[in-house]
TrEMBL record:
Sequence intervals crossing the membrane: 21-40, 46-66, 87-116, 151-169, 189-213, 225-248
Keyword Transmembrane helix applies: yes
Superkingdom of the source species: Bacteria
Name of this chain's protein: Transmembrane protein
Sorted UniProt keywords: Membrane, Transmembrane, Transmembrane helix
Origin organism lineage: Bacteria, Pseudomonadati, Pseudomonadota, Alphaproteobacteria, Caulobacterales
Length: 266
């Protein structure tokens, strides 16, 4: 427990300590990424298919600048550059997305099977076309068993995401795409990563809740520009920099070999 607490504290401190330097060395890349991140919200329906590529490009541009600056040193115009690092990180994002999507699909099938089984056990003559029949079948004794599979599925997805979270750092450091090969770097670190991520994300979450409250009072529409600008700014100018700095620090501790007795790690 002591080691995990120390790891959480170190990771949080590294994330916060890397925030200002990340903005300073990669501000232009983050700003361009934020603009690209806003573009999908302005696309007409006929160009909606461009939303995902734009979002991938936006986050790749930001992560590429930050990881490159932290691991290889600053380059480009205040971090703004699209080179081999960005292409590799784009591949990592795509592969991780595919893995998570496949796992989510499998879990969805399993969850559906369990929910149907619970509903059928409570009501053997369940009318699957009736929403009221489903509600009645999953109420009472069936509520808890039916709610557990979705909860467990969410935990599995978070676990898998965190286990793959050092793939970008490993990719930039080793100069080749690393996804499943970086899986072992996070062995035993899921809980510290989750805790550190929650602590780092807490200020942004509080601000988002406050913005939602203000939006409700001020009567902003769902697609109002100001809340969208704030959410994108939070993502690119806070969450991405602190999370990247935290992961780089964790990667350095995991990837570097342990010093042999009588030596000092530099």
């Amino acid at each position: 427990m002591g080691e995990r607490s120390a790891a959480i504290g170190r990771t949080v401190r590294a994330g916060l300590a890397g925030w200002a330097p990340g903005l300073r060395t990669c501000g232009t890349a983050l700003a361009v990424g934020a603009v690209l991140g806003l573009l999908p919200r302005a696309l007409p329906p006929g160009l909606a298919f461009l939303a995902l590529p734009l979002e991938f490009s936006a986050t790749t541009l930001a992560y590429g600048a930050l990881y490159r600056a932290a691991i290889r040193g600053p380059s480009g115009w205040n971090g703004l550059r699209w080179g081999a690092v960005e292409w590799r990180l784009l591949a990592v994002q795509a592969l991780v997305t595919v893995i998570l999507t496949v796992v989510a699909a499998v879990l969805a099938v399993l969850v559906g099977a369990v929910v149907v089984g619970v509903a059928k056990s409570n009501d053997p003559h369940l009318d699957i076309t009736s929403l009221e029949a489903w509600r009645a079948a999953l109420d009472g004794p069936g509520a808890i068993p039916a709610s557990l599979p979705p909860l467990l599925s969410m935990i599995v997805m978070i676990w898998l995401f965190l286990r793959l979270s050092l793939a970008p750092a490993a990719t930039v450091d080793r100069g080749k795409v690393q996804v499943l090969s970086a899986f072992g770097l996070t062995r035993g670190l899921v809980l510290p990563l989750a805790a550190a991520g929650a602590v780092l994300a807490a200020p942004a979450c509080i601000l988002v809740v406050a913005i939602g409250y203000v939006r409700a009072i001020a009567g902003f529409s769902e697609g109002a520009l100001v809340p969208q600008l704030v959410s994108v700014a939070l993502l690119f100018f806070y969450l991405i920099p602190v999370w990247t700095a935290a992961l780089v620090d964790l990667y350095r501790h995991q990837a570097l070999p342990a010093p042999t007795p009588g030596t000092v790690r530099s």
